[in-house]
Amino acid sequence: MACLRIAYLSSSMRNLGGAERVNCAVLEHLSQQPNFAPRALFLKEAGELGRLLSEKGISTIELGIQRRTQFVLGLRRLMRHFREQPADLLFTAEDKICMASAALLRRLRVIPRYVICFHGTRTWRGFIGTVHAFAVRSADKLVALSPRHKEFWQHHYQLPEEKLTVIPNGISLQRYRPMSEAEKATIRQQHHLSPIRFTAGLVTFFKDSKNLPGFVQVARQVVDAGVDAQFVLVGDGPERSALETAIAEAHMEARFHLPGVTDCPESWYAMFDCALMTSITEAFPISLIEAMACGLPVIATAVAGIPDIVVHGETGFLASPSELDKLAQYVILLAREPDLRQRMGAAGRKRALAEFDVNVMVERYTRMFREVAQRP
Prior knowledge:
It is a single chain. By secondary structure, this protein is α/β, with parallel strands linked by helices. The protein folds into two domains: 4-170 and 357-373, Rossmann fold (3-Layer(aba) Sandwich), CATH 3.40.50.2000; 173-355, Glycogen Phosphorylase B (Rossmann fold). It has 14 helices and 13 strands. The strands form two sheets. Strands 3-2-1-4-5-6-7 form a seven-stranded parallel beta sheet, with helices on both faces. The chain has a six-stranded parallel beta sheet with strand order 10-9-8-11-12-13, sandwiched between helices. The longest helix has 18 residues, at 338-355. The radius of gyration is 21 Å and the shape is elongated. The model has no long low-confidence stretch (mean pLDDT 93).
């Protein structure tokens, strides 16, 4: 079987969000298979995860493009690279500049095939919307993360059924396990948290679609209801300042912990009592799968693919993004009902182990890449 040359294109691969971790896992696993030769190209810089790929022997190339005004220069460098080192297939996520570059490289026949992996449900208008639509329609295959996610994009762009495929996110399940109450208390103390307070949290990228001020509103209602709780948001991003302002305005500084970016999300989820997500839009958040694999019940907004992860009333609770009061009531319920918390957490872990294994995810990607690359 011929070796398939797969190129991944991104502006950077920083350790900030689930999409980056998923694509990193795909490249890492592909590199371990004899019939695939993956490489990663970064318009700006490799970032933490990109450097990790390099350390593991995967070819990484930084093109040094720092501004959007250098788009043409970046495109020229990509064209030179692929003419010197051809690829059978290029894939990228929803990085608009990378999508536009990939679409043009495909139209110019510099690359024979390209795939977009959707990791969101955000839509665009104006010039950006035109670029997004051009890139989507130029792609040979589109990857959605759940049936609902697929339906969203298929309806939005009126796409034919065969243009999309569904590949749910997966994680390395052996890294994640539940912890006893004693273990949780010890780890919380190591992070300067109360060992006995009910703890709700999330590992996430701090961007506007996550509605982190809404997370603070839920936390305020929980505390006002008399629950002795603390809240942890692990990560960073452009909305950190807005989050800190929301915490201060709610007078919740003593209840919140913002430790920054982590390489070990499992160590944080293992010390939580539940995961809480207040996003306005999502696709198929890997953070919730990680929480479930650690035996946590999940309270989240019922947007896009989240209902394909969380079974309402069985592995957690769901509400619409406008129903922050209802989310708060669910947190209060779990805080006051440890048996329910344990039962839902166990059901969530069982579901994660059965449905969201990284090896299954990568096998689906490898089959899809080969099928697309071998089209006549």
